[in-house]
TrEMBL record:
<feature type="transmembrane region" description="Helical">
    <location>
        <begin position="241"/>
        <end position="259"/>
    </location>
</feature>
<feature type="transmembrane region" description="Helical">
    <location>
        <begin position="271"/>
        <end position="289"/>
    </location>
</feature>
<keyword id="KW-1133">Transmembrane helix</keyword>
<feature type="transmembrane region" description="Helical">
    <location>
        <begin position="68"/>
        <end position="87"/>
    </location>
</feature>
<feature type="transmembrane region" description="Helical">
    <location>
        <begin position="33"/>
        <end position="56"/>
    </location>
</feature>
<feature type="transmembrane region" description="Helical">
    <location>
        <begin position="107"/>
        <end position="125"/>
    </location>
</feature>
<dbReference type="GO" id="GO:0016020">
    <property type="term" value="C:membrane"/>
</dbReference>
<dbReference type="GO" id="GO:0005385">
    <property type="term" value="F:zinc ion transmembrane transporter activity"/>
</dbReference>
<keyword id="KW-0472">Membrane</keyword>
<dbReference type="InterPro" id="IPR003689">
    <property type="entry name" value="ZIP"/>
</dbReference>
<protein>
    <submittedName>
        <fullName>Uncharacterized protein</fullName>
    </submittedName>
</protein>
<dbReference type="GO" id="GO:0006882">
    <property type="term" value="P:intracellular zinc ion homeostasis"/>
</dbReference>
<keyword id="KW-0812">Transmembrane</keyword>
<dbReference type="Pfam" id="PF02535">
    <property type="entry name" value="Zip"/>
</dbReference>
<feature type="transmembrane region" description="Helical">
    <location>
        <begin position="215"/>
        <end position="235"/>
    </location>
</feature>
Length: 290
């Protein structure tokens, strides 16, 4: 893990500006602590969303803003996959005597396995919530519905449990990538994925009878499972194929769980905004990966 630290540190230099040397040195010397700190900071993303809530709850602006944030998150996740995780896995395969066999074992198979495992996790989550979870990016912006029946409360708690599983897999990805020396890009990608995700979840909790304080506390507790996932990622025997596994999971999340919700709005203007936001997400990953 230590040898890869310099690689991941260098990747983030341009993006982090004047503080890059200190941050990179810390990440290289303390990858496990860095992973836990990053996971904890991402769990605080639920606090970042508060200023955006009035816009999201507004029927005229909410849906469009959420879709743009989601598009940006898709660009970030796919940018992390194709500009960082896969090239990193390929870099290690290049040193093998038989590149074709090595790339199949260290890139192809783990990538497919990642997609399959995330598919199974999504099926489990969908079964628990009795609906397509879609990472909670579909959101009803009618904030007036505050029925506090046990049924709606149960739906809210199931949604929180599903989020806990989702946060665990995010934490797992962070633990794996930080130990292999390239966690900063993955952390940024996950953070920008979590902002629209948390916005949607917050709206769902409010709709199901939670007040703002209860919803924030519930989301924060749910996000703490990310720290557990991170610790699991840190103690797993580190293998190069894990980059590809995480990449496969992110491809599934981006293309299967999130993108279909963006297909609902066929308007030319909204499509243009979504494509621009995706490109911006990819460009951000390009800046970090340089």
């Amino acid at each position: 893990g230590g040898g890869g630290g310099g690689v991941g540190a260098g990747h983030s230099a341009n993006f982090l500006g004047g503080h890059d040397d200190g941050i990179n040195q810390f990440v290289t010397q303390h990858p496990s602590l860095s992973a836990i700190i990053a996971t904890f900071l991402i769990s605080l993303s639920s606090l970042v969303i508060m200023p955006l809530m009035p816009l999201v709850e507004n029927p005229s602006t909410g849906k469009g803003i959420l879709k743009i944030l989601v598009s940006f998150a898709v660009g970030g996740l796919l940018g992390d996959v194709f500009l960082h995780l896969i090239p990193h896995a390929l870099h290690h395969s290049c040193h093998e005597a038989d590149f074709h066999v090595a790339s199949a074992r260290q890139l192809g198979l783990p990538l497919l396995a990642g997609m399959l495992v995330f598919f199974l996790a999504d099926k489990l989550i969908s079964g628990l919530t009795d609906k397509d979870h879609e990472h909670s990016h579909k959101v009803k912006v009618d904030s007036k519905r505050t029925a506090k029946t046990s049924k709606t409360r149960a739906a809210a708690y199931l949604n929180l449990f599903a989020d806990s599983l989702h946060n665990f897999t995010d934490g797992l990805a962070l633990g794996i990538t930080f130990v292999q020396g390239s966690g900063i890009t993955t952390a940024v990608a996950i953070f920008f994925h979590e902002v629209p995700h948390n916005l949607a979840d917050f709206a769902i909790l409010i709709e199901n009878g939670f007040n703002a304080k209860q919803a924030l506390l519930a989301q924060f507790c749910s996000s703490m499972t990310g720290v557990l996932g991170c610790c699991a990622g840190l103690v797993l025997p580190q293998q190069q194929w894990m980059f590809s596994f995480v990449a496969g999971g992110f491809i599934y999340v981006s293309t299967v769980s999130i993108l279909p919700s963006l297909m609902e709005d066929r308007g030319a203007a909204s499509t243009a905004y979504q494509v621009f936001a995706m490109c911006l997400g990819v460009y951000m990953m390009l800046l970090i990966a340089d």
